[in-house]
């Protein structure tokens, strides 16, 4: 399936996709804080292939899923997370532990396109199906 190698952890000092924040507040007289991440909006597309009478999903290697499995099997990898230098990941787990089956999806990062147009682009890019905006049906949206 996937061949991954030369894995190493590093601090993430900036990202195009995630922005960490800390909210400080007082609740019922008690000072508190909560850390959270801001991320891009996204579209997800549930695809039904009418000729084969089946749903279409995307099979992908996801580094975050992989690293959750690494932490579960080798928790010592994250013990140095506050230090400048992270170790290389010796004897990595097989890539398959980070493979997911998921809906076709993508981030909303093209302000000149509608959500529907972005969805059509993602379906073509990830699944190879050319669909028109008129063929889409909105199922739901959420925050």
Automatic annotation (TrEMBL):
| InterPro entries linked | NUDIX_hydrolase-like_dom_sf, NUDIX_hydrolase_dom
Domain (Nudix hydrolase) spans 38-143
Q: Carries keyword Hydrolase? A: yes
SUPFAM superfamilies recorded for this chain?
A: Nudix
Per UniProt, the keywords (alphabetical) are: Hydrolase
| Record flagged with keyword Hydrolase | yes
Q: What highest taxon heads this organism's lineage?
A: Eukaryota
The family annotation for this protein states:
Belongs to the Nudix hydrolase family.
Recorded hits in PANTHER family, A to Z, give: UDP/ADP-SUGAR PYROPHOSPHATASE, URIDINE DIPHOSPHATE GLUCOSE PYROPHOSPHATASE NUDT14
This protein is called what? NUD14 pyrophosphatase
Species of provenance: Tyrannus savana (Fork-tailed flycatcher)
């Amino acid at each position: 399936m996937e061949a991954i190698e030369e894995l190493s952890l590093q601090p993430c000092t900036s990202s195009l996709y995630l922005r960490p924040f800390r909210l400080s507040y007082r609740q019922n007289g008690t000072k508190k804080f909560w850390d959270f991440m801001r991320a891009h909006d996204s579209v997800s597309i549930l695809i039904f292939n009418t000729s084969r009478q089946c749903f279409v999903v995307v099979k992908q290697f996801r580094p975050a899923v992989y690293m959750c499995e690494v932490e579960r099997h080798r928790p010592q990898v994250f013990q140095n997370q506050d230090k400048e230098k992270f170790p290389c990941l010796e004897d990595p787990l097989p890539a398959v532990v980070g493979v997911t089956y998921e809906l076709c999806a993508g981030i909303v990062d093209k302000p000149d396109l509608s959500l529907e147009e972005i969805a059509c682009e993602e379906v073509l890019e990830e699944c190879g199906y050319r669909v028109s905006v008129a063929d889409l049906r909105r199922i739901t949206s959420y925050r």
